[in-house]
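Hello, quick one for you while I still have it in my head. My current little project is about how a certain protein chain folds up. You're getting the sequence in one-letter code plus the fold written as C-alpha cells. Would you mind checking whether the C-alpha cells look sensible for this chain? Here's the protein in full, and shout if anything looks odd to you:
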Amino acid sequence: MTIDIRRTEIELDAELCRRSLRHFTKEAWDILEPGRPLVWGWPLDALTEHLEATHRGDIKRLLVTIPPGSMKSLSTRVFAPVWRWLWQPRSRFIGASYSHSLALRDNRRAKMLLESDWFRDRFPNVQLDQNRAANEDFGNNKTGWMKATSVGGVGTGERGDQFIIDDPHNVSEGESEVKRRTALNWFHETVPSRLNDLEKDSIVIIMQRIHQEDVAQAAIELGYDHLLIPMHYDPDRKYYLSTGWRDPRTVEGQLMWEARFSSDAVARLEEALGPYAAAAQLEQSPVPREGGLLDVDEVTLIEKLPQKLDLVWARGWDLAGTQGKGAFTVGVLMAYDVDTRNVYIVDVRRKRLNPNGVRQLMRTTAEQDAEMFDDATRVRIIYPKDPGQAGKAQAIDIGDDLTGYVTRAEAQSGDKETRAEPFAAHIGGGKVFCLNRAWTKAYLEELRFFPKGKYKDQVDATASAYNELLRITRKKKSTLLMVDSERQRNPANVQWR
C-alpha cells in the first residue's frame, strides 16, 4: 500500500487548524499577506484565546480594547469566522464598522481565504456559494454566510449567530457628541435584535478607545468580558474576564509587543497623536479634552530661570508608602517671584517607594536643594500630616529626619481639587513657567488630565508647594507693611538687613 505523505501532512495540518484558531491564523497568514512576515506575540495569543471562547459559546459578550495596528480586524473579522466554519459551517456572521468600505474589505479577505488553493486542499467540504458571492453578503455551501454593514445599518433583515463590531467610531469624529450618540443608540437598540438567539449567540466588540463616552464604555457598563491590552503595562488597571486571564507583563510601563511596537516607534506615535489621542488609542484610557481644572496650555516652558529674581522657594511633597503599585511619592520644587508674581516649576521628584524609601528620598532631596544655595533654610519643605496617631507619628519621624531644614507638616483639608484651585487660578493668569526637563512632559500631562486622570500625586505636591508660597509671601508682605509704617513714624527704629 502506497502512503501519500503529502496528503497525510495536509490532513494533519487541517486537523490542527480545526482545533486551534491560533494555528489556523499562523497557517493562513501567507494566503492573505504573502511576503509579509507574521510577527506573533502574546497579545495575539490572548486575542485568539478569547475569540475561540466566543465561538465555542463560553463567552457571550466580549469587548477587546487594543491599540491600532494589532491585527485586530484580520483576526476578528476574517480568520475567526472562517475558522468557525471548519467545524460549524452553518454559522452566520454580521460584521460592522464605522465605514461600510472597511466592512467590505474584511469580507473580501474572508472570500479570498475561502477560495484559496490552501483552503480547498485542507477543507474541501466548505466552499463558496456561487449563488451568494457578493462582497457585501457572501455564503458557503453549508448555508453559512457573512454580511458586511456599517454602524447604523442592519435595521431589518437577517439575523446572525455572532455580531462583530470592529471600530464602531471614526477617530476623526470622536469629539462629535451627535456621531457618538448615533453609534451608541445603534449599539443599544439595533445590535441585540440582530442575533438569532439572545441567550446563546455572541456579540464581539474590538476597538481602540476614542472617548470616555464611546461604545466600549457602554459595553463595560453592560458587564461585557473586557480584554484590555494597553500599550504600556499599568498594574493598577482592572480586568473583567470570566476566563481569569491576566496581562503577562509585570513591570510598570512595559510595552505590550516590543517586536511589533518598539520604544522609538511608540514615542514617535505618541508625539504624532498628542496626549489626548495617545491616552485613548494607545493606553485605552480616554480623558476629557476640555473642562480640566488646570489649563496647561497657559504654562510657559523655559530652559533656565531668569536672573536677579526675588524668589521665595518651597518644595511640596505628596507621600505614598506602597512600593511597586498605587500612588507615587512626589516632591515638587517651586519658586515665587514676589515682584512679578511669576511662579516657576523648577524640579520634580517622582518615585514609588516603601515608607523607608520615602524618608530617604526626602532627606536626599533636601540635601541637594540646600547645596544649590549653600543654605539649608532657603527651601521650605511642606509635607502632609495624615489624621490619626499613625499620621502624627510619621510626621514626627520625617521632621526628625529633616532636622536643620525649614519644614512644616500640614494637616490635609478638603479634596485634591479644592487644594489645587488656587494654583489653577494662577495658571489662568499666564504667570506659571516650567523648566523643560526630562520630567516635564509627564508632569504637564498629569496636570492636563486632572482631576479625571488616573494619577493626582504631582498635582497634590504642586498645590502644597504653591499654597505654602502663598502663605509665606502673604506673611512677608504683611511684615513689610508693618515695617514701612514703623519707618514712617520713627525711621531710626527700623533695623534693615
Remarks:
- The two ends are 111 Å apart (CA to CA).
- The chain has two domains: 5-282, 296-483.
